[in-house]
Amino acid sequence: MRPGATxxxxxxxxxxxxxxxxxxxxxxxxxxxxxxxxxxxxxIWAVLGxxxxxxxxxxxxxxxxHAAFFGLGAYTVAxxxxxxxxxxxxxxxxxxxxxxxxALLIGLPTFRLRGHYFALAMxxxxxxxxxxxxxxxxxxxxxxxxxxxxxxxxxxTDPRVYTVLAVGLLALAMAISMVVExxxxxxxxxxxxxxxxxxxxxxxxxxxxxxxxLMLSGGMAGAAGGFYACVLLVxxxxxxxxxxxxxxxxxxxxxxxxxxxxxxxxxxxxxxxxSETLHAELGEIIPGIQGVVYGAAIILIxxxxxxxxxxxxxxxxxxxxxxxxxxxxxxxARVPAAPAARxxxxxxxxxxxxxxxxxxxxxxxxxxxxxxxxVVQGSILGIIGPNxxxxxxxxxxxxxxxxADRGEARMDGEEIIGRKLFEICRMGVGRTFQVVRSFPRLPxxxxxxxxxxxxxxxxxxxxxxxxxAITRTGLTHLTDxxxxxxxxxxxxxxxxxxxxxxxxxxxxxxxxxAGLGRDECDAVLDVLKGxxxxxxxxxxxxxxxxxxxxxxxxxxxxxxGRVLAQGHPREVVEDRKVIEAxxxxxxxxxxxx
Length: 593
Ligand SMILES: Nc1ncnc2c1ncn2[C@@H]1O[C@H](COP(=O)(O)OP(=O)(O)OP(=O)(O)O)[C@@H](O)[C@H]1O
What we know:
With 593 residues, this protein is an alpha/beta fold. It has helices spanning 5-29, 33-59, 67-84, 88-110, 115-135, 150-153, 159-181, 184-194, 196-201, 206-232, 237-241, 243-256, 262-282, 289-304, 309-321, 391-398, 421-426, 444-454, 459-472, 488-501, 518-533, 545-551, 569-573, 576-583, 585-592; strands at 141-142, 234-235, 351-362, 365-376, 380-384, 406-411, 414-415, 429-431, 506-510, 537-541, 554-559, 562-567.
């Protein structure tokens, strides 16, 4: 569980229990059978919305095809009952298993696609299943009437019993979502949504996490579909695999709020009664009024609250509660000093990283061309070079973001080239990226925790490692501050802390000082010096020469993908080749004064 999760879960659990009891009390007094059915449908669609949210909301990959899992669940229950006489009490859990298994089969090929292509591919699955159901002659599967033993066959004469069961299913789906969102599961998924590459570089096995999320989501949708079949007593492709079903899952979550378990609940509680009431009152005059309601809801929410009702209300509330523009006071004096830096690194003399003949081309462009260098343990190697010289590509080839064409890189004698990004991270290579990505609404601690989870540390140790990393970067006073209120310097340090939380032996820092003022640069440099004093080995790409001269033990100059020079910073910056290729005439003039 994430820090602070237990009291939060308790609080939210009590609110949820209160809401569900109130809902049951209302449904107990409704006598009209149409509205009784509507009260049963609200929790069912909320469960489908929650299932969509567990995958698309947390991972950020839009699914237009959740009807596939829902429909499979509905057909599983209906066919098991009609063909094998199997009670829905067993059929519904089996529907969840079928939904999860379908998610595995769908995920395997579809995770190769990204963005819009993924969303469109998901659309194809329920369509395919719908045609298959028609082809197999399952155009209309009616559940046999077994009113003699209502409990055994889940066929009750009093529709309010279905509402109670639907609320029970919703409570279960909410409990699952709450645990997911407040655990390493949810945080890992959110990290993937924020930046897949950075998440993998932090040690997360992105494909595995996505698959787990889709399977859980498929299972929840399958159970919802299975129960839906028991409520309607008839299953048709249009009703359970149709476009409106997928749209309903998506719309209730988008309307209520994406990436939070409250979202689908709010969305279903507002949209389902609205569309069903309009359907009841105006359905004969305007057929398909539900589609109009969902379309209008999407347009309205996109215009007025793009992240959904929940976030819009919560953010407004938070702004009123804390009217200051930033939760972080501005005075720099308040920033506690990072660990005191020793003037010189502990020279271990031992080589930690040995790179030989590393090459990477993009078509005809040799972005990294036969690069060799080594890094002494406990030292800082600065990498400089003109824009487009191949510095970032070299980092990418080193830590597995891109496959290297040739070459080797041994860390402590162990080859890292050819391994996956998350494996290299787990071997002790931490990395930051040029563009910082944070989870703005989550506290700094949670943002940093991702690095510790990625390294595979168990829950308690992960929190300890994250707190240690926060202390080492001098951000202790901001531990509970939301990342959205941090300054550029604090965000840079937060990213550094995230890399440190995985307890790396080697840090790859890509332009950590980019966009910072002189004072801010100094503060970050102090942190880096502190880390070196602790024995951390760092390779840093940086354009700010004054910073490089102050911090680097050695400089490596790259130009057109090749090593132009390597050595002590003072010697390197006086090298004519380096001056001509990178530093320029102004630098030469300054040097010759
Ligand atoms: N994925 C890619 N596909 C094709 N070409 C690429 C790709 N990534 C980088 N390049 C090219 O490779 C060369 C090296 O780029 P790289 O980003 O590594 O340079 P850099 O030294 O890090 O530059 P900067 O200092 O501007 O970040 C550039 O010409 C760039 O356009």
